Amino acid sequence: MELIFQWDVETQDSLDIEFCVGDSAEEWMGKMPDEETGAEVYWIIAGQGARHDYKTFEELTTAKLFDGRSLKEVWGEAKVLIINEDSPEDWLRYCRP
Fold this sequence. Notes:
two-stranded antiparallel sheet
């Protein structure tokens, strides 16, 4: 997960990742530059569709959004479906940071 989030949003487009945890519906997360400050904003749409924004990767991965568990805790059960409109394999082969 850390490798994917090394994507430089200052020189590249935003980072958008579609994933699922176990049998759950698709979830979305990513990062993008803040429109006003240019600082990186980490975001996730999980559970019932509410978007949560965070200032750091650590905040994103430790927030308890999955039935009291964090993204870090559930990542072993997660399957990445799409990264910036590419399959994970293609993204890692051609676009990785």
